[in-house]
Design a protein that fits this description.
The complex is a heterodimer of chains A (329) and B (326).
Chain A lengths: L4 E12 L2 E13 L4 E5 L6 H8 L8 E2 L4 E4 L2 E2 L5 H7 L4 E4 L3 H4 L6 H12 L4 H14 L5 H4 L9 H13 L5 E5 L7 H18 L2 E6 L2 H5 L4 E6 L2 E7 H6 L4 H9 L48 E4 L2 E3 L14
Parallel strand pairs in A: 3-9, 3-10, 7-8, 8-9
Antiparallel strand pairs in A: 1-2, 1-4, 1-5, 5-6, 10-11, 11-13, 12-13
Helix pairs in contact in A: 4-5, 4-7, 5-7
Chain B lengths: L3 E13 L10 E13 L3 E5 L6 H8 L7 E6 L2 E2 L5 H10 E4 L3 H4 L6 H11 L5 H14 L16 H13 L5 E5 L7 H18 L2 E6 L2 H4 L5 E6 L2 E7 H6 L4 H9 L39 H5 L5 E3 L3 E3 L11
Parallel strand pairs in B: 3-8, 3-9, 6-7, 7-8
Antiparallel strand pairs in B: 1-2, 1-4, 4-5, 9-10, 10-12, 11-12
Helix pairs in contact in B: 4-5, 4-6, 5-6, 6-7
Classes of the chains: A alpha/beta (329), B alpha/beta (326).
Chain lengths: 329, 326
């Protein structure tokens, strides 16, 4: 079956004051209709750049390599322009960002912001747009939706603002929703509500989702498959249960261990030493090797290929190399 | 209690909303007669959602905000009775670390100067001595001392939070309020900063008030937890029993909201509905969102008192059962 979104060899580069940055390096993944893919990694690993490049929302300074392909519903988004691109953006693929407070226009009512999206993509009269906006606010669980239509963003809590952002994103019934850290700025209680809402909406509307987060705990209950990104590359990819039960890449394991848990008592949290290096200076060999607790001699010089562990489980780590003599370093 | 460092009694704080042409100004009670003690060397976590009053409480303890009513004693001294010079002396002993290190650091000040500034203000160091002490503080919080000349935007979120911690520690305080110190950070960096805070506490014999919305984050650091909702204490007690068998339904709901990194874990069907919203009734402030099976008319007609349970626990719920008695 052809996937809804097929990203192949996506490479995005920038020229910065500190030099040439390879923000995303030959990233490939696909999402089937109705499926949720989680992309997980620390800040600076290329998650958001990947998401923005799907919608072609990157600055002109960002160069996407000519060999990259972003095929959505049979069409390469990279070849679209003008009207054709506008017909996809916001209508077939919609996006929800991290901070609803800064994404909403503070001087417009939430109703006018939702109807704006409707008018932009459809021929719809004012009354019908209003009715549809209220139905959307109701769908995302905003109590007393009709009276909230005229509310301004500052009159709503952070959780309610994020529901409004989701209502806007859903206004044209997208086939794919990209949610970039949709719960990171929220309280845990509201995070749980929003994740639950996204799950329910996905089932109800049959849309696919790309869920981007730094927290593996967030994707555990929401994603069908997970891609872990480090240093602009996907370093491990697997079905969600497989990834949590049988993580192969040391970075995935480190991210899992770092989550503060209620059910585990440890005097110290297992932190990942150091920080993500800048995209202008990825280390040679495996990009994670300076922070890796299981580093081998070869890791600092040899770039690990993507090893296939099972039909849908990949790891970009020499530890996954099962060829004879591979552990000699 | 032995050796109380911070003793707050019946702390109450009202805010008056500005109002506009459509709405009259309203008085909102952000804190309602909260008692809180922190023993020397203890870490007390104050946990609740945005709007629970936890940051207001932290600010009042440090006299960054005046209470409408109530008292705060620090090491036996009434904080709000102090005049200029003794207050300045006291401020050296109590410091705060904010959530967003980017928002709390001056973007045009080099981070080394930001860490040295409190030392200058309190006239504790100058010249070469100041420089040496700033470098020592950088090393102590795990920052490369060569970073002193950098600006905040040149550092990562975790590094900026280390700067915020170094700045708070510069004047060698006894007591530090940590106001959501890791909630703006990546999970991997959260663990680093939490470990650092634990190390610093042990090395410097610090007393912490740790403010957070996430019970998982405070579990490793806190000795005791105070759960706030709409300015009132719902539950408080030592960490182990509070996490094992929460007394108050709000505590249970906060625990259930923590994401479990396990795809097979089924979330309890007690996910808290709605938002924290002001409550004008006479009953329990949590009643409108409460999922307790026994919730009834009494919850809306009679405010539950904060009452004691075994193991030095307290809870304000009519239907809290004491697990130790069963």
């Amino acid at each position: 079956m052809t996937p809804l979104l097929d990203v192949r060899d996506l490479t995005v580069e920038f020229d910065t004051a500190d030099g040439h940055a390879l923000a995303v390096d030959r990233v490939s993944f696909h999402i089937a209709a109705g499926e949720t893919l989680g992309i997980v990694g620390e800040s600076g690993c290329g998650k958001t750049v990947t998401a923005l490049s799907i919608l072609r929302l990157l600055d002109d300074e960002a160069v996407t390599s000519p060999s990259s392909a972003i095929v959505f519903d049979g069409t390469d988004i990279r070849r679209l322009d003008g009207e054709a691109l506008r017909a996809v953006r916001g209508a077939k693929i919609a996006m929800v960002f991290q901070e609803p407070g800064t994404s909403l226009n503070p001087v417009l009512t939430i109703g006018s912001q939702i109807t704006e999206a409707l008018h932009a993509h459809r021929t719809i009269d004012t009354g019908a747009a209003r009715a549809r906006a209220i139905a959307l606010l109701d769908l995302v669980g905003i109590p007393d939706a009709a009276s909230r239509f005229t509310a301004y963003p500052h009159q709503l809590s952070g959780g309610m603002q994020q529901r409004v952002m989701i209502a806007m994103a859903l206004s044209c019934e997208p086939q794919l929703l990209i949610a970039d850290e949709p719960t990171t700025a929220l309280d845990v209680t509201i995070q749980a509500q929003i994740l639950e809402l996204l799950q329910a909406l996905k089932g109800r509307l049959g849309m696919a989702m790309l869920l981007i987060t730094h927290d593996l705990g967030v994707v555990a209950g929401s994603a069908d498959r997970v891609a872990v990104m480090y240093g602009g590359q996907i370093v491990e990819q697997a079905a969600t249960r497989e990834l949590f039960r049988n993580p192969q890449h040391p970075y995935t394991r480190a991210l899992l261990d770092a989550i503060p848990r209620l059910d585990v008592v440890t005097p110290r949290l297992p932190a990942i030493a150091g920080a993500v290096p800048p995209a202008t200076a990825w280390p040679a060999g495996c990009r994670f090797h300076p922070r890796c607790s299981q580093v081998l001699d070869r890791c600092s010089t040899d770039v690990p290929p993507t090893f296939v562990l099972a039909p849908s489980h990949f790891s970009r780590c020499w530890l996954a190399d099962t060829s004879p003599g591979s552990r000699d370093g | 209690m032995a050796d109380v460092l911070v003793d707050a009694r019946r702390v109450t704080r009202d805010f008056r909303s500005a109002g506009d042409i459509f709405r009259r100004p309203q008085t909102i009670r952000a804190l309602d007669r909260v008692d809180l003690t922190v023993a020397r060397g203890e870490t007390v976590a104050v946990v609740g959602e945005s709007g629970s009053g936890k940051s207001t409480l932290g600010r009042i303890l440090l006299r960054l905000l005046d209470p409408t009513d109530g008292t705060v004693n620090f090491d036996g001294v009434d904080v709000f009775a102090l005049k200029r010079e003794p207050l300045r002396q006291l401020r050296r002993r109590m410091q705060i670390v904010f959530q967003d290190p980017y928002g709390s650091l001056n973007p045009r000040m080099r981070v080394g100067d930001a860490v040295g500034e409190p030392l200058e203000i309190h006239r504790l160091a100058a010249g070469a001595d100041l420089e040496r002490r700033v470098r020592d503080l950088f090393a102590e919080v795990g920052l490369d001392p060569s970073y002193v000349g950098r600006f905040p935007h040149e550092l990562s979120g975790g590094q900026r939070q280390r700067v915020g911690i170094a700045r708070a520690l510069a004047v060698a305080p006894d007591f530090v309020v940590l106001d959501e110190p890791v909630s703006a950070l990546d999970v991997s960096v959260q663990a680093q900063v939490l470990n650092l805070l634990a190390d610093l506490r042990d090395r410097r014999s610090l007393t912490y008030l740790f403010i957070a919305h996430d019970l998982a984050v405070v579990k490793h650091l806190a000795n005791r937890v105070v759960v706030l909702y709409l300015g009132q204490v719902m539950e408080q007690g030592p960490v182990a029993p509070l996490y094992d068998a929460p007394l108050h339904p709000y505590t249970s709901a906060l625990l259930d909201a923590v994401p479990t990194p396990d795809p097979d874990a089924t979330r309890e069907q007690t996910t808290l509905r709605g938002d924290i919203a002001s409550y004008a009734g006479v009953g329990c402030v949590f009643a409108p969102r409460c999922m307790h099976q026994k919730k009834d008319d009494r919850c809306f007609s009679e405010r539950p008192a904060l009452r004691p349970f075994a193991e030095q626990r307290m809870a304000a719920c009519h239907y809290a059962d004491d697990p130790a008695k069963e």
